[in-house]
Amino acid sequence: MLLSKPSDYVFEMLASNYGKAKKMWRRHIKEAWDYKCAYCGKYGDTIDHIHPQTYGGIDELPNMICCCNHCNKEKSHEPVEIWYFQQDFFNQERWDKIEEWRDNRAPAQRKRYIRGRGGIPTKCIVL
């Protein structure tokens, strides 16, 4: 089961702590990419932020892809649109898959807040 972020694994009781949840989440991302680098197609052993954290990229599923160590270091903090199009190994099919991955959002949890005195939420029920 591929969830949006590591804390969701703890919430769904699939992992007992955040560290285990993060390892599980990263492994599931690599499995979804068949352990192949999204950029060059070689063996992917790391996870890359498509939109770099230095530019506001977040640790959520649509922004994380499987990547080989070489591409991860080469891309560094560059925006993917600039870096990837300049590479000799650029491939339109892989780019389309990256774009499709970015567009897919994990289903958001629906929450219902039960209001207490003064309209302050006192309970949160996940539907």
Question: Can you offer a commentary on this structure?
Answer:
By secondary structure, the protein is of the alpha+beta class. The protein has helices spanning 6-11, 18-32, 69-75, 80-85, 92-103, and strands at residues 46-49, 64-67, 111-115, 121-126. The strands form two sheets. A two-stranded antiparallel ribbon has the order 1-2. Strands 3-4 form a two-stranded antiparallel ribbon. It is globular.
What does this entry show, briefly?
The protein is α+β, with helices and mostly antiparallel strands.
What Rg is obtained from the alpha carbons, in whole angstroms?
Answer: 18 Å
pLDDT averaged over residues = 83
Total of domains: 1
User: How far apart, in Å, are the first and last alpha carbons?
Assistant: 18 Å
The major beta sheet can be summarized as:
2 strands, antiparallel
Query: What spatial order of strands do you see in the largest sheet?
Result: 1-2
